[in-house]
Design goal:
mainly alpha, MetI-like fold
């Protein structure tokens, strides 16, 4: 005969109820913050000459207006160009830097690591003003290269965090074995380290691309008519004219951000289990 199930402890029941209440409160807060952004999506299919919710009709007119205006799609191409350049440059800088910080044993390593993460801690307005003063002295304001360099400074800390997480899970014994067998440092890095941290590299690249593509404050300081990115164009349109095209652009940016976030989530298990 089996013993009857023991009654649940009141403490366990209260703890379970508190956990459920906390999860419900978190979801309510999350939806409260998210819903205003999602409301823009049906507005973008309204096709009217003013922003209204709910939309009175279904139309793709705002998207056609976006694609037919060189000022809008030109800014989108500029943002895409800048984001791709920032992703490549951030990888070229952050990848060897993260490896040196993770495997190196030298005096001042902790200080250097803190300095490398400083742009993440400094207010973005302060960072934008500093980049404007620096690039202005170099006559690189209102240039694509200037925007790429400024965004790279802002994205490198996020890239270092992603790569550092991957390197902490990488097995240093494999590197030692390869070194004992006579492999060079470059070959060890390319054929032993990189395959282990490939998911982290992809996550860092996605973070860098998305942060650069959506960044507006730093770009607002250093862009001009020839180098205006899409977020700056949107901000200027909000200030001077509330164009309905903003809803279509916001929908496209939301879809892009969601796609990148889903890609990052898909890469998380591979990042935790690189083998």
């Amino acid at each position: 005969m089996t013993a009857p199930d023991a009654p649940r402890s009141p403490v366990f029941t209260m703890r379970h109820a508190a956990r459920l209440a906390g999860a419900a409160a978190a979801w309510v807060g999350y939806l409260f913050l998210l819903l205003p952004s999602l409301v823009v999506i049906p507005i973008s299919f309204g096709g009217g000459q003013e922003l209204s919710f709910p939309p009175k009709e279904f139309s793709l007119a705002l998207f056609r207006q976006f694609l037919g205006d060189p000022a809008w799609w030109g800014s989108a191409l500029q943002s895409l160009l800048v984001a791709c350049g920032v992703t490549v440059l951030s990888l070229l800088i952050a990848l060897p830097a993260a490896y040196a910080l993770a495997r190196g044993r030298f005096r001042g390593r902790r200080v250097l690591e803190l300095i490398s993460l400083a742009p993440m801690l400094v207010p973005v307005v302060v960072l934008g003003l500093g980049m404007y003063m620096h690039l202005s002295a170099l006559q690189m304001v209102n240039t694509t290269l200037g925007v790429i360099l400024a965004h790279t400074v802002a994205t490198i800390p996020f890239m270092l965090v992603a790569l550092g997480a991957g390197l902490r899970h990488a097995d240093p014994a494999l590197e030692t074995a390869a070194m004992i067998m006579g492999a060079s440092r470059l070959r060890i890095f390319m054929e032993v380290v990189l395959p282990q941290i490939r998911p982290s590299v992809l996550v860092g690249a996605l973070f860098a691309f998305l942060i650069s593509f959506d960044e507006v404050i730093i770009a607002y300081f250093i862009t001009g008519p020839e180098s205006m990115t899409l977020p700056v164009k949107m901000y200027s349109a909000i200030r001077w004219e509330v164009s309905p095209v903003l809803a279509a652009v916001s929908t496209l940016l939301t879809i892009l951000s969601l796609a990148v976030c889903l890609a990052i989530m898909a890469l998380q298990p591979a990042q935790r289990h690189p083998h």
